[in-house]
Amino acid sequence: MKRALGIPAAIALCLAASAPAAGAGTNPTELTVGLLGVGYTGCDGCQSVLEVATGGATSGVFSGRGGGGLAAGFYLSPRAAVEPMFSLSHVGSGISDVTVLGIGLAVPLYSRADWGHRGSYLAPRLGYNAYDLGSGSVRQFTVGVAFGAKSAINEFASFRAQVSFDYGFEGDLKATRTLGLQLGLSLFVE
Q1: What is the sign, positive or negative, of the torsion defined by CA atoms of 170, 173, 179, 183?
Q2: Is 66 buried (19+), middle (13-18) or exposed (0-12) by CB count in 10 A?
Q3: DSSP label at 20?
Q4: Is 124 helix (H, G, I), strand (E, B) or coil?
C-alpha cells in the first residue's frame, strides 16, 4: 500500500516542482488541449481495444479512455520542457460505466531551439491511471514515449500531432501495450 501511495505522490511532487520554471526568463508556458485521439491497446490474455475519441483521448498517459486531455509545458530551455498532463474521462454503455483519472509527466526534447513552436520532438513520459469501474477501482502505472511534430499557426498557437507507445505495468490490471495517435492545439502564453 505504501508503494501504491508513494508513486502518485512522487508524480504530484514532479508536477508541482515543474511550476516554478514557468516564470523563469522570457520562455513561454504552453497549454495544450487534445482534439482527437486514436489508440489500440492490447495485453496477453485479454481482448484488444481500438478507440477513437474527440478530446485527444487514448489509453496511456496522454488521456484516459473516451475523454479529453490537457497538458501544460514549462520550458527549461529552448529545446526542452517539462509537461504535466491530466485527463478525466467517462465511458458508459448503459450496462457498465468506467471513469478514468489520468496524470502524467512528459519531457519533450525538441529538434529546434524555438521554445516548442514548431519542429519534431521526442518525449519520454510516465503516468498513473485510476479506473473507477462502478463495482470497484483499479490503477495502473505507465511508461512510454511519444514522437511528434508541431506546426506554428501564428506566434501564439501551434498544431500538434504525435504518435505514442505506452507500456502499462501489471498490477491491478494485466500488463498493457498501447499505440496511440493524438492531435492537439498548443497555445503559448508569456
Answers
A1: negative
A2: buried
A3: G
A4: strand
Q: Label residue 129 exposed, middle or buried (CB < 10 Å: 0-12, 13-18, 19+).
A: buried
Residue with cell 519520454: 124
End-to-end CA distance of the chain: 41
Instruction: Evaluate whether 53 touches 27 at the Cβ level (below 8 Å).
Output: no
CB 104 within 8 A of CB 62: yes
pLDDT digits (tens, 9 = 90+) for 11-69: 444 444 444 443 334 688 999 988 888 878 888 777 777 777 666 544 443 343 445 67
Residue type, 57: A
Strand ranges inside 55-116, DSSP E: 67-77, 80-92, 97-106, 109-110
Domains of the chain: 2-189 (2.40.160.20)
